[in-house]
Design a protein that fits this description.
Layout: H1 9-20, H2 24-37, E1 42-48, E2 54-59, H3 66-71, H4 84-87, H5 99-105, E3 108-114, E4 121-127, E5 130-137, E6 142-148, H6 155-158, H7 164-181, E7 186-191, E8 194-199, H8 205-213, H9 215-218, E9 221-229, E10 232-239, E11 244-245, E12 251-255, E13 258-259, H10 263-273, E14 282-283, E15 285-290, E16 296-297, E17 308-309, H11 312-337, E18 390-391, E19 413-418, E20 422-427, E21 430-435, H12 436-455, E22 459-469, H13 472-480, H14 482-487, E23 491-494, E24 499-506, H15 514-527, H16 539-549, H17 559-570, E25 585-589, H18 590-596
Parallel strand pairs: 1-7, 12-15
Antiparallel strand pairs: 1-2, 2-6, 3-4, 3-6, 4-5, 7-8, 9-10, 10-15, 11-14, 12-13, 16-17, 18-19, 19-20, 20-21, 21-25, 22-24, 23-24
Helix pairs in contact: 1-5, 2-7, 7-8, 10-11, 12-16, 12-17
Length: 601
Amino acid sequence: MSRIALLPEDVASQVAAGEVIERPASVVKELVENSLDAGAHKIEVMIRRGGSSMIRVVDDGTGMDRDDALLCLERHATSKIRTGLDLAAISTLGFRGEALPSIASVSRFRLTTREHGALAGTDLAVNGGKIEYVRDGGDAPGTQIEARSLFYNLPARRKFLRTENTEGSHVEHQLHLQAIGHPDVGFVLINDDRVIHQLPPAANLIERIRDLRGAALAAELLEVADEEIGGIRLRGFIGKPGVSRSSRAHQLIFINGRAVENPTVNFALREGYHTALMKGQHAVTFLFLDMDPAAVDVNVHPAKREVRFRDPSEVRDVLIERIRRAIQGGRREWSATFSTPAAASGLKPEFPTSGPVHDGYKEAAAESAPPLIPVHEQVTLRQDWAALPIQPMAEPAMPVRLEGSPKPEADFRILGVLGRLYILMENADGLVLVDQHAAHERILFEELRRRMETQGVPAQRLLMPVTMQLSPRDSDWILQNMDTLQKMGIGIEPFGPATWKLDALPQFLKGYDPAPLFREIIDELRETSATSSRLRLGEDVIATTVCRHAVKARDVLREPEMVRLIQDLLRCELPYCCPHGRPTMIQISYAELEKKFGRKA
């Protein structure tokens, strides 16, 4: 007796709908994408009870005639692709022809549509996949789709829906994605007859970001210049160093206008920021990649959230390079803000002049330093000085100047020291606080890393070489990167079929178990950019080392040492933050101070 049977059409439709329609937000996503593909300039989304009771999407797109309106309810009926070659180069947001029949099979569905210039439109209703009526309609040109009682015929699936507020927030998030991805389109969101968003078409992306995420966040973004490299056009905005979140919810990436998730892109973002991000934090990004549709596969996930690149390394390298350039561009603006020429006054700030105070600010004694661990002069702190938490200075305060910098509009003066840790400074925008420990960490980190890059990485021979069997893929990668591994202080050579002998490791990795450590090295290096420093593996150790040797809290710095500290910080590649991602300087504007003191509403 045969045990295999064809599923009834309604059951097959519900199974397919389960892959595409997960919750009300999935319905909104699919319908809005169809509206965008239809060339809509304004899209209105209305929901009730988080979308479980009613979802209505109205657009002013091209609309459909009666034949297309009926055919769009058939599974795999679409106007986006025709052949298998089209599937390999998808340029539209939708393409499978599954969304409308899937929605219609799990809801009470109504579609009204009219083409521009047509005398009459089409009005049809579907209940659980069964057409109830088809008649002429007189609505405005465009398309209106309404889905009521979502999952009414799948009570088990309906139980998995969350609270109305939760489902409503998912719908709002989905609309945010589409609104940011298409700033030239107007969007309206109405939830339970209350207008949540009314977004007119924006002149540019930053205006749409400001409308949705606020002016405060928009002011903390760096622009990624619109430029095409190797057939990949990248544009958008990224958060300044120090502007980060604990999750990737604020990390928006659009590939050819489609909001996507991709591990290659996620890694490139972290690599591009590098030490400008704290561990566990994620950059805030609004990035758009436009590339040949044939170079990216969007037919991977039923909900089209994930994509695959034909050449992920090229995409990764372009992203890393462009993010670094954007941060460097922001660095020049930042340095100009925190730099000023010396004042013409002959008066000096008053600092303690008696007692044992060190010269300089704990500069490394490079000649006597063992490899990678700088030795610093010991600091003897005075215990009887500065009973108050703020060390005052005489007027006028000493200005700080970055040598070779252009003359900025703002004066920048040292005011004093708060708690023997934070250097207080003033510029035209307000008050600036400098963390002397974090600032010195950044200076020492970049100095030590440059020394390692120019002088090479000292290697430590293993007393007992280790043999390892590696996969063919890992073996091939090692053969291609032997020179890089040697420069990193890693000694490895073939020792039989699929076997390798490891006889040297960098000195900063001594004490680790060689075999598992080397496997971790392979995994990490395979993910890095071709332009990344070969010392990336040792940077965590360098950061820990300089943290121990940098100026500490409560260390007493004299005025010349503070000036030198600020000057050296401004010369760094990434002066915004320490190697661990903590900020080195923060600005408190006059406007913020006036607001806190009640001078301004």
